[in-house]
Design brief:
The chain has helices spanning about 1-25, 40-125. It is built from two helices and no strands.
Amino acid sequence: MASTTKDEKADDFEAKLRFIQENVPDRTRMVAGSTAGAGSGDFHSYRQARRKEQVRLEDLERDWEEKKKREAFLAKREARDEEEKRKREKRKAQREKKKEKKRKRTKGQEVIEEKIEEEGAENREEPA
């Protein structure tokens, strides 16, 4: 008897399922597109939503372009700064080289002057 009750319940369940499938209508959405069944007032809502989306897309595009321009500017500026730094270091090295050369020349001049003074002092001392 236990098996007949299960069979009866299964048959009863299948009958209920068939009844539901046959009598309950399925809902179909978007049968003829987005404007099917739309009233005359809905066009204004659609146009407003479309305008908002267009403005949003324009803002995104403008932000993207500004970001690209800013990145290009920063890259160009960094390259220019590097070039300027390289030139500055080169000029600094040239100035240092020139100063060192002048120091050596001056130091050499001082040595020569000291020798001249020493010789002059010796020459002055002899006749006197």
